[in-house]
Design a protein that fits this description.
The complex is a heterodimer of chains A (about 10) and B (about 220). The termini of chain A are far apart. Chain A has no helix or strand. Chain A is mostly loops and about 10 residues long. Helices cover about 75% and strands about 0% of the residues of chain B. Chain B is built from 10 helices and no strands. The chains are: A little secondary structure (about 10), B mainly alpha (about 220). The interface between A and B is medium-sized, with 8 and 19 residues. Chain B: InterPro entries: ER_ret_rcpt.
Chain lengths: ~10, ~220
C-alpha cells in the first residue's frame, strides 16, 4: 500500500 | 528537492523580506492589506500543524518557523505598532475576507485527500492561500499608485507559486506516485489571480513608469 505521501513541501 | 521548488521557496522568502523591509524602513504599511496578512498567517498556522510531529529536514522546519513567525509579526505590527498602524489604509481595506475563510473551510470539508483533522486543515490552507491575495489586489486597485516595495512584494508572492507549478510538473514526470492535484489546481488558480497584476507590472517595468492598476 502506498504510504501517505508526507507533505514534504512548504 | 528540485531547483524549481528551491527557487520557489527563495522567491517566497524574498517576498516576505521585501514586505518586512518596507514596513521596517518606511515605518509605514500604506498600500498593504492587513486582511491578506491575516489570511496568510492563518494559511501557515493551518498548513504546518505537522511542524512538531513530522520532521522532514532542518530546511523544512526552519522555513516553516520563518513563515509562521514573519506572518504573525507583520499582523502584530500592523495592528499594534503605534507608528505603523497609523499608516494602515483601514477605510480602503474592506474586503470581507471572512467569507473567503468560510468558503475555503467548506471546500476543504468536501474536497480533501483524507478525512482527517490534519488533512482537512491542510486542504483548507491550500485553498485559502489561493485566494488570500484578493484583499491585497483590491486594495492596490483602490489606492491607485503603488510604491515600488509593495509592487515587488506582490510580484514575488505571485512568482513563487508559478515556480511551484513548474516543480509539480517536474515531480510528476520524475516520481512514480506523485499526485498533488489539490495543490496543483489550487496553485493554478492562485497564479491566475495574479495574471492582470503581472501584466501591469511588466508594462510599468517596460515603460519604466509608475505601477498603475486600473480602478
Amino acid at each position: 500500500v502506498q504510504d501517505q505521501v508526507s507533505k514534504d513541501e512548504l | 528537492m528540485n531547483i524549481f521548488r528551491l527557487a520557489g521557496d527563495m522567491t517566497h522568502l524574498m517576498s516576505i523580506l521585501v514586505l518586512l523591509l518596507k514596513i521596517y524602513a518606511t515605518k509605514s504599511c500604506s498600500g498593504i492589506s492587513l486582511k491578506t496578512q491575516e489570511l496568510y498567517a492563518l494559511v501557515f498556522l493551518t498548513r504546518y500543524l505537522d511542524l512538531f510531529t513530522d520532521f522532514i529536514s532542518v530546511y523544512n522546519t526552519v522555513m516553516k518557523l520563518v513563515f509562521i513567525g514573519s506572518s504573525l509579526a507583520i499582523v502584530w505590527c500592523m495592528r499594534m505598532h503605534r507608528t505603523v498602524k497609523r499608516s494602515y489604509d483601514g477605510q480602503l481595506d474592506t474586503f470581507r475576507h471572512y467569507f473567503l475563510v468560510a468558503a475555503c473551510f467548506l471546500s476543504a470539508l468536501i474536497v480533501h485527500e483524507k478525512f482527517t483533522f490534519q488533512e482537512i486543515f491542510w486542504a483548507f490552507s491550500i485553498y485559502l492561500e489561493a485566494v488570500a491575495i484578493l484583499p491585497q489586489l483590491v486594495l492596490l486597485q483602490r489606492s491607485g499608485n503603488v510604491d515600488n516595495l509593495t509592487g515587488q512584494y506582490v510580484f514575488f508572492l505571485g512568482a513563487y507559486r508559478a515556480l511551484y507549478i513548474l516543480n509539480w510538473i517536474y515531480r510528476y514526470f520524475t516520481e512514480q506516485h506523485f499526485s498533488r492535484w489539490i495543490a496543483c489546481i489550487s496553485g493554478l488558480v492562485q497564479t491566475a489571480l495574479y495574471a492582470d497584476f503581472f501584466y501591469y507590472y511588466f508594462i510599468s517595468w517596460k515603460n519604466n513608469s509608475k505601477l498603475q492598476l486600473p480602478a
